Amino acid sequence: MSGKPILHYCDARGRMESIRWLLAAVGVEFEERLLQTKDDLTKLRKSGTLLFQQVPMVEIDGMKMVQTRAILSYIAGKYNLYGKDLKERVLIDMYVEAIMDVNDLFITHEILLGDERKQQFATIVDKVTNRYFPVFEKVLKDHGQDFLVGNQLSRADVQLLEVILMVEEGKPDILAKFPLLQSFKARISNIPTIKKFLQPGSQRKQPIPEKNIDQVMKIFS
Q: What is the mean pLDDT of residues 105-116?
């Protein structure tokens, strides 16, 4: 039996992508058991391994873990991405919760079509430009370090980079007014493990083409 974590999800970003990012950032290789059809999900549910009958599910350290935030917290704690003390941890949690607000918008955006998809992306751009990115720009300025919290990489850094790159896919100049976030993006992107994950052929997922959305939705319908 492989010692690698096993990730159960479909071939899409969704709620699994941040988990892929954290594992990649700490250099942990993982396997994926991709759900191709609704029957695949049904079999997984009937096996009794899905505590709340839903994915993502990650097999790691003898556990079959569900609930995205719980999985991310476990990985962050296990691989030293969660700060050095309780005060750093609560800052990381605050930043991550804001980042995941944006990520939740992207999860919806990924399965929309046509004008609805464009409208959702416009909402994302408005919120990151006026609410979220100004805060992170100020955090970097006030903190004066290479990272958002403390002086080492945390899950907040990894998850912020993930969101920045997703927004840039639709609006490449989104960081034009945020010079510190530009530097942050370049710095975190060049961490060797993350740089590797950003290369073509990695397990990082691309946006679902509109023509494939129905196929993905049928798995969960």
A: 92
Give the CATH number of domain 86-190.
Answer: 1.20.1050.10
Choose among 78, 162, 183, 167: nearest CA to 129. 167
Q: Please answer whether residues 136 and 92 qualify as being in contact, where contact means their C-beta atoms are separated by less than 8 angstroms.
A: no
- Cα separation, 17 vs 168, whole angstroms: 17
pTM above 0.85, yes or no: yes
- Superfamily of domain 6-79+198-212 in the CATH hierarchy: Glutaredoxin (3.40.30.10)
Residues 6+ apart with CB under 8 A from 125: 167, 170, 171, 174
Q: What is the pLDDT of residues 167-209, one digit of tens each?
A: 999 999 999 999 999 999 999 999 999 999 999 999 999 998 8
Rounded Cα distance between 57 and 208, Å, is: 20
